[in-house]
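Backbones bend. To wit:
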Amino acid sequence: MNDAQRYLDIVASQIRQVRETQWSSIQTAGQWIGDALAGDHWFYTFGTGHSRMLAEEVFHRAGGLARAIPFLDPMVYFTAGAEAATAFERKEGAKIGRAGQQECRDRYR
């Protein structure tokens, strides 16, 4: 077995583990999101560091969710440096994605 095959085996194993241990939570989250969208609500996403890519993935993409709004804030991106982004995301009381948060507050008051 070569390195590429070992890599694929590890990835497949991790995906199986997620399916076996997290499937119920994934289904529940999907139901919540579906119910919110069916009720004409918005789907807000958030992530810091590399996980922000997941928040961006559902936003502003051809065929994506038109009712998705990510909380985006350059302070948690690595463009200012990993050390600065990490320090900001760990700061107690830090306000992430102010524009998105205001949108959420205005909509659900």
Remarks:
- The helical segments are 3-38, 52-57, 82-90, 98-107.
